[in-house]
Amino acid sequence: MNRYLLLFIGSTVTVIVDQITKIWSVRALMRPDGQLPESGDMFRCPLNADVVAYPCTDLYVVFESWFNFKIALNKGAAWGLFRELPADWRVPFFVLISAVAVTVILLFYRKVEGQRLVGSALVLIMGGAIGNLIDRIRLGWVIDFIDWHVGDSHWPTFNVADVAISVGVGLMILDMIVNRHEEPTPKEPTDIASAED
User: Fold this and answer.
1) Does 62 reside within a domain?
2) How many independent structural domains does the chain possess?
3) Is residue 187 part of a domain?
4) Residue 144 annotated to the active site
5) Catalytic hit among 18, 135, 144, 147
6) Which residues pair with 67 in a beta bridge?
7) In a domain, 186, yes or no
8) The one catalytic residue among 18, 135, 147, 162
9) What is the chain's pLDDT, residue by residue, as a tens digit (197 residues)?
């Protein structure tokens, strides 16, 4: 099968899973008025809440000690970097960065023929980059909804696209560790006299 077809299918599957889970999270965690919150720290208010005009949380607890689902609208990059940029600059900036990343991945993918681990990593990274790019073009921010925590210390909320990118980077690091190429041994000088025989 054509390598680029594998890249297309793998990254498309990643994008589809990312977008489906984001749609689910928005529907499951949306406020009762049917509107997405404007701030990353506002979630759906319980229907029986006395006051619904102020931010309140309604988490879907998966494992109470470390794992929740909650909506966070990330206007920046990882860990909210550059979120304070004006929207007129922020969205085009991230779209441009994502487009450059996808282009670099395509160019790099061409050079890693036969390196399955790196190829798989690039498929995941490209799918994740496109998944978050779709959010930025469509909404102006990225929908994050997976919340990991230890006690009151929370890891920045993330999504399936972020997982794909992180796993892809991890696979590339693993490839660098496992498949370190030894220094090529220098060829012994050829005896000119014997070569002439």
Assistant:
1) yes
2) 1
3) no
4) yes
5) 144
6) 63, 148
7) no
8) 162
9) 577 888 899 999 999 999 999 988 887 776 555 455 444 444 434 333 333 333 333 566 667 778 888 877 777 666 555 566 666 777 788 888 888 988 999 998 988 877 888 999 999 999 999 999 999 888 878 888 888 888 778 788 889 999 999 999 999 999 888 877 645 445 555 555 555 55
CB 126 within 8 A of CB 7: yes
Assess if residue 73 is contained within a domain.
yes
pTM above 0.85, yes or no: no
Helix segments in 30-115, DSSP class H: 87-110
| Residue reference for tokens 């490839």 | 175
Range of the domain at 108: 3-180
For 115-176, the three-class secondary structure string (H helix, E strand, C coil) is CHHHHHHHHHHHHHHHHHHHHHHHCCCEEEEEEEEECCEECCCECHHHHHHHHHHHHHHHHH
